[in-house]
Amino acid sequence: MPMKKSRLWNVLTADDTKKPYGMTQTHEIGRMPEDSAAVKCTDRIFLVRVGGYAEVLDAESQMLSLADSYPAVHEADGFKTEISFAPGVILPTEFKDGSIVIGEEEFPVITRGIGEDILLLQIEDDELIVFDRSRFLLYACIKGEFICGYVEV
Amino acid sequence: MRKNRINSGEIVSPGTFEGMSQYRPPLCFELVGRTLELVMDTGYDYELTFCDRKALRYGEKGKEASEYAYDCLKADDDTYFVNFEVTGAKPRAGMSFVLDMEQSLVTANYCTVGQNPRWPRMCKPYITFGAIRREDGTLNELRHGYTDEMVGKAIHWQYGNLEVVHVYASERYYRLTQTREGMEKLKTEKPDVYERLSKRNVETIYEEPCHMIKIKDGIYVFEANEEMANRERGSGNDLFFLMNLNRMHDVGRSFGYNAEGLPENYTYGAFGEYYDASELLARESTEFIR
Lengths: 153, 290
What we know:
heterodimer, A: mainly beta, 4-stranded antiparallel sheet, 1 helix, B: mainly beta, Lipocalin
């Protein structure tokens, strides 16, 4: 049996039966320590895996920060859409005040804002989703694994 | 923040981007500051210098190079897609490179438009291969190569504001179709597009010439020149894709003209899913003797 990483991972990958869209590592922010890796989400925002946890590198401030350091926002509350992180797994999704419903599962979430176009969805300490509201692209670090996806336009 | 209202709910709206570039990943600036020597099998060597995030210099080695605005995207950790308009070229030209830094190999597409007197908007791709000189001065003797590994497969590509199924019918031709779900969606959301597409692949099969090139395991170039579209409606572009089938997404560019008849040359990205097109694959070509 394949290892099931988390409830969120199982929802996004149809119980680990579908391989999620993979991400390309970036070499743009210089050499990373051995147990670290980074992916580029936008010109400004990079997700950096340090140990098993995801942190956010903001190219504007050159600061590596935990998601906690960004202000909580409620601008997407009520937004209903469909998202996909794996081929053939298209999930109805609703942003609520304090939670997000993906498929049939509800996850407590703190939504944080970076600038005008980036939302950070902080689900668990080691589960972070970046939502580029301009391109409707999604980037996630889930239990140390980088994946990407899209929001239905 | 951009917002609008649909039905009773408040929704977030995406930005507006050219053509099918909605899902294009962020541009890559990793090559900034580097100069690559491209030793091409045409017998000419070129120098490609990434000056900054926006401009590169390109020209034959030992001669004066010109500066161009470029886009760079990544398909793999060490495989780059670079695209630019060769501004000032007559006939109009676009240059695209697949730079495979892992194997020190390059595939190039110098695409022109405006040379066909009957179909003046017909593009003419010219694909060449070569090696990138390594830091120790050596060259890889291998080359990226034409492949039949994609033949018989089909992939549903999601570009955001466009979705299509590319059916890799043979080493030299591909077919185009839509998913059943996609057609249902079009029927309600874009009835005029539905009307046009529902006629496709009924009496005749929509088929175009193409090139399929293997870069490395799971990484392929797919080039399709919309020749039939040009003949039928007077416009059609050259599409150059770099597909990562290990991660099921692609990056690429469209070179030619947009719906308003203006020159276009933009990069894009998409998410893919294998699709069962066995019914379409089983039909005989109505366009080409094979």
